[in-house]
Amino acid sequence: MIAEALNRLVRELTKLPSIGEKTALRMAFHIISLPRSEAQSLAQSIIEIKEKVTLCSVCFNITDCNPCSICESDRSNSDTICVVESPAHLAAFERTGQFKGIYHVLQGVISPLRNTSPDDLKIKELVTRLQQGKVKEVILAMNPTREGETTAIYLANIIKPLSLKVTRIAQGIPRGGEIEYLDESTLKSSLEGRREL
Amino acid sequence: MPEYRTTAVILTIRDYGDIDRIVTFYTSDFGKVSGIAKGAKKSLKRFGAALDLFSHVDISFFTKETLSLVRINHCHLKQSFPSLHKDITSMSYGSYMAELINEMTAERVAHRELFHTLIKLLSLIDSSPFKEDYLRIFEMRFLVASGFRPTLTHCLDCKQKLEKGPRFWFNIPRGGVVCPSCALNKNNLHPVSLGTLKLLEQAGNLTLDKIERLNFSSQALEESREIMPHFVQYHLGKELKSLKFLEKIRG
Lengths: 197, 251
What we know:
Chain A is α/β, with parallel strands linked by helices.
């Protein structure tokens, strides 16, 4: 018979993504074996993340100060806004060190299969930012998937009447890729999106 | 572990762990199958752009009797239906058809006619201009293929053939139509004209190459919209997310 406290911890851990009951039980036994200070530190970190981390009121990135450090900083290319699906995608672009503009995180993509409509995303907030007149170019940086493309085309149709330049991130052959092993759809995208040297 | 090869339409995709994806696809030879695509998020070499919603693909997978998920080995794109995502409405039509098959068909039960209906209707929605008619045609053919064909030609109570009359009444729980005299003093019935009933009946009977000839009037669309999605959800026992989405975007 398993102690009720252990049962409760396993139930809570299985609510996390990709954690099944066996993994949760293994994690729970590991937590039992931890020194009290480490277990307390873990619990405290979870509480703190809920208390301190919030969404930036401007770009909707995850932040512990509002507005976030990117919105507050003096970026050299602040008339260009990069629209991304999630904070993870924003972090990926930041890792390149190439983009010096500002961001807007939609918090998802349009998905009929998940019943996520445009009203469930931060689209109204994006349009409000664009109407302020500081932005000249909008980069649509959703994933090149069916749902990402639907969202990008929907946004382009909304943004174009505002007389702003709307661009889509390039699609095609990844760096280091082998042309003969790529599928027809990717090669077609690479030809459509070719650039002059 | 034997390897199987078939053609399929991708119904759902979800991330699993850091780099894998769980994919549900509807095949011509094995019906609905769910499988894991190892490394699909990270490496595009094996799956490329083929692993995307509603793509028509040649797929190969390994299966083990003890495992419910197959292991997807290779996926080659046959048809991508590129216009489907160019409009939020056509995207939701495709999603509705995929969700219907995913929710209402059993795993590993093949139904070639249904598979070909799905391909045909996705192609029609992909071509311009797409019409709501295609959803009603798909629903009807899906119901026929699944054994839930509604009775549209005669009254459920008096068994009289429905031939004349301005209006008849559809009973969702009973799956059919009653004539005006049998409908007296009965609740929760949906009005439907003889023209709409004939169109829906044809949608279930015509051969696949002729279904695009069907043309729903605005009255037929309005009446059938009040019946068919509710009838489908009644048998499913739950609401479909894509239908809720369609209602939201219609406002």
